[in-house]
């Protein structure tokens, strides 16, 4: 038996319970409002919060679950410094490349440092010093550590703070195959972690950037208020984020032209929606024009040439910038064209642009959907005029490029061919990512392989937003009275509410006995011994969101019962006092 | 049963064990060298270390003990931000007053922030917002959090780093009496904490600065290499640090003069030791002169007047600056006099100074010991000359002030009158301190007392150097082979060393069974399955300092035994294989 492992006496009178009737006006989202009102966090500065006792209990439970599953998956915990020397960040170029969200500081000797937003550089530096041989691989190092990102506009409390806690893990492997195995081990560990949190979530395929392949997944907690759109197929296990989800080529062929091309006056109608309304046609008959530019740099980094691109999307579709950024010719960066460039190439200002009869040559990229349209409507490159009945081949050449450049919409066919797509909203709280050799090559981090030759590590990185998770949990689980925590991450699992603790000896005795019994059984229980009126007491615990409540009152005790109520229950259930402890324990999910 | 509470499989082959034969040359102290060699820490920048897996395990055990005892003592954990806005630090004046060890930074909006070295300002800000009524008191908030102090000369590894982890607690009370109670609760909790660490330590009275009283104690881990001198009485429970320990007034009266005062040539002898040697007398017969100055400032902060002080100490005694700083007239700050000031007042350069016949008036402060001396020796205020046979009253006036201004030495009487003092060395790893209303008044942090009037909080602060403690433990517990951890904070409590794990099935089977048995019993055990040669394997674990080792070899197995060896044992003890697990468990102290 380890000393110190006895349960800690938890009485509301000695703990710090500080609920608020109102949240400050600048708290825009429900999780922010409820965490402030429940006394879980306290603002110190924009995006910088103290984790108050009640909130820290939640964070610690999140940490513990993450730590246990990372350990179980064979990852090894260490702690890298918060203040990191700029030299390492210069090796990868991130010191210069990252924007002001990277907080740069100088020490007393005017040496440059950063406050870590992540630790790729430091962990790669450790690996190149410590992992000399293939025999030491694979290795996965993780930390649960404070991070700082100097957001331009921190908001939503812990959802988008500047100072936050993240679990970041980094795997090191001999080869891509090993790295993919390490990636899968982490992806599985993440599923166990999110299962244990007791939240509804989806692991969705995410864009893996320049590396390609499918080795990037986001773990999204489902919430109507989420910032991210999640695409999934209800009849299969397909799930991806909006950036990633592919819009399949339309099934049918392009219909034959049925209408002549006609220049139609559309005075003051500069958007597809306005034009469709004026002409009385569905929005899906219109085509929107988006003009991009790419610059070729000369020897002295001056702009040597600029190419103008015309992207065509159906009027009811949105451009997907990630997909656009992967088109041949656009992979190295693009920008929206300036108005001067547009006028120069189209002879017209934005609002009435189209691919027919441009003044100068532009590269035309048609979305897959647009490429099979007939008799469509687009701008006439003349202010206040559109063209109707436009047809590929007849009125203009076939597009230079046909590609998937739009966001999918609900009802689109699922890329796996097993149904149609639905969209819901989520909050990203985890990400697993195959990095390849991006950092190891930049930092010359190699090991000696079996053949005696140095090779760069194949890496992966794996993050969980420890302090963001409670906020996401609340966005998913709350009602008008407050938070509803899943058992696993509740600040307390059970609260005992005696009515008249300060007046009735019978109530006090029964409550104390029940409390001692649950505490002794290892249940995370708090006894509200403050002697507050029932209304105030219940409102506090409903706001704080403790999932299980036992109410002890004189009235019930006369009949030998106490009342059990789950935070989601509409009404209490009477339970015999003698069975109350085991009754509650049977209802706990942890 | 909680999910995830199963023990984690710990095999050396999958863990990260990275011992070094040699430590870098800049590692000056044994704990720094051994932590680097054992792979517990890794330097990232001066005074900034990664806590490597093996070291982090120790730190986590230290944290857990501290957290359990703080919780048990009723302190409430929260986490305050690392990046703190300057405004709060300006309220107490510390933003301007603290030197460059306070790391100041600007965010993207050019607003001033600091990286917390401690959190008095933030916690007092929380208290003034959250603790409105005397009914909410007492409260004690603590955190275990990363701190930063931009030391000019960081060194000794975790002993004096720039980034480090500290447990800092802050108590809030209605009145001084309550604050003293909170202080005592913390002092007791600290004793439990340090008892559990399994280290030899002393709680010593420390100077409490301007507040007075005895409400400041340091917790010192005893180590010959410690920076601090600890004064204690072997026959009583008196213990204090050197700054604080009082030198009692000498018991006997001043003897009558026996010698005439004589001006004696002491060419080139400018120190007491040289003079005593030349004259063939004990050093204790000489008196050293130390000249201080205090400046009185005028209305525009210009120096309006300067007063010169002559401090007289026995030649074999050292000045105690803390005691000097409390003398009337010196409490508001003093400095050593410049050579010009000395020449102006004494007519002589340093080396031959004394209180007899100064050129200008100086305030003479005699140490208690000097005040009862007769026939003493001091400088003649003339180069190359000293006076012998000097006597108070006869040769010069009685001193303006007699006071305790020296460090005690071994053999001095104990201030509690119960024996004589001894001195040993220690490393400060904890401090409990009664703050009074210093911060609450500066920040106008008040609560409404029972009488309806606002009163400032009475505060205390309580620190433990979480990352310094492992270093102190090593300074106390090591030998030529490496570290010797106490059970409570060892990275692993037990290591199983199979000889020929990769060759012998019998060894592998026995080792695996023993491992599974200990793991199942909740013992913190690691199995060295690397298949290293015994010499390498033993050297690794002796360097790392795991206290209990079980060696499994073919030779022993033939007789049904394995070998147990404590890290301090000179030789192994054979133990029957079947009893080995319970045999080890009986020897564990945790």
Automatic annotation (TrEMBL), chains A, B:
Main localization (coarse): cytoplasm
Domain of life: Bacteria
Function field: Catalyzes the attachment of proline to tRNA(Pro) in a two-step reaction: proline is first activated by ATP to form Pro-AMP and then transferred to the acceptor end of tRNA(Pro). As ProRS can inadvertently accommodate and process non-cognate amino acids such as alanine and cysteine, to avoid such errors it has two additional distinct editing activities against alanine. One activity is designated as 'pretransfer' editing and involves the tRNA(Pro)-independent hydrolysis of activated Ala-AMP.
Protein name, entry field: Proline--tRNA ligase
GO terms of molecular function: aminoacyl-tRNA deacylase activity; ATP binding; proline-tRNA ligase activity
Entry text on domains: Consists of three domains: the N-terminal catalytic domain, the editing domain and the C-terminal anticodon-binding domain.
InterPro entries: aa-tRNA-synt_IIb (IPR002314), aa-tRNA-synth_II (IPR006195), aa-tRNA-synth_II/BPL/LPL (IPR045864), Anticodon-bd (IPR004154), Anticodon-bd_dom_sf (IPR036621), Pro-tRNA-ligase_IIa (IPR002316), Pro-tRNA-synth_IIa_bac-type (IPR004500), Pro-tRNA-Synthase_IIa_type1 (IPR023717)
Underlying gene: proS
Catalytic activity: tRNA(Pro) + L-proline + ATP = L-prolyl-tRNA(Pro) + AMP + diphosphate
